[in-house]
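Run Probable dual-specificity RNA methyltransferase RlmN through structure prediction, thanks.
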Amino acid sequence: MSENLPLLPLVFDEPRGRKKPPPHLADFDEAGRKELLVKAGLPGFRAKQLSNHYFARLTNDAADMTDLPAGQRDELVATLLPTLMDGIRVQTADKGTTVKTLWKLFDGALVESVLMRYKTRTTVCVSSQAGCGMACSFCATGMGGLQRNMSTAEIVEQVVSANRTMASGDIPGGPGRVSNVVFMGMGEPLANYKAVVGAVRRLTDPAPAGLGMSARHVTVSTVGLVPRILQLAEEGIPCTLALSLHAPDDELRSELVPVNTRWSVDQTVEAAWTYAKTTKRRVSIEYAMMRDINDQAWRADLLGDVLNKFGDWPWVHVNLIPLNEIPGSKYTRSRDEDTDEFVRRLEAKGISTTVRDTRGDEIDAACGQLAASE
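Sure, done. The structure for Probable dual-specificity RNA methyltransferase RlmN is below.
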């Protein structure tokens, strides 16, 4: 085990001393939105109309809101629908079906989101923090450290913006709507727990209170913050949990994912099993394949053994990820034949396994690369 592992904070809360983004409709439930308007001296019942414009009509432009009094439109929008972020750079790949956007937040922080249209679904990958404090050694975002947590509304706005893009018909395949959301962009979602759970609720709240998405189509990833995994299991939101494991043994995982020095592989996997048992939702194990680092056949066998310690039903699925290589990094993508053998060995132990479809190879594919280039 490396003797120079980064020290991790004892708590995973909002960094202090930073100005927070302006309050936004998506930060609150319906009662909270009404209260915000009333405090501003505006009619509380207008909150539902504003919610309908934002979540159903996908607009925050006062000029579009002809059902609101002309004399109050600007004030209502300024109170509940302030501008949270500006897209400053866009990259496309895969014949226009992959769109990566670099966003500038109100305080100058940079985050990224990725819209990916497939034949049967459209997924948006969202960020939950500007930067990341988990310091995973192979991750572009982790190299820059944590700047701040994002607000619930800043997270939701990435999805609403993706829906605007889909509705415009600019993505090949015609107009459509986002069907899946994955919290796999910049940041550790469970280190920004309150805002992320709030965002999941806004995504799944029935319209017009929220976007009306199925919780089963929302995936929250984590490197393994065990107390937060157990807390999420009790929220009553049956979203999918994705555990970024990346190694089945403590020695290697502690080098790749330093939070493993707090909670071991067995403790982390047991928490994931508890999540599956509580929510009845199968957990996804994310495993970035790194050449000659974690892709040996014996590690596939060990991974199968670790996962098979828990549960007597197929509670887990392994998602092998071809590594998005970072210029100058010692970590490179596994050989195809090693990945194939890894799959074969896991399946031989009864573990459902797939290799993630690669998207955006011709652009700055790894989260954090586009922000770093700015």
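Residues 221 and 242 are 4 Å apart (CA to CA).
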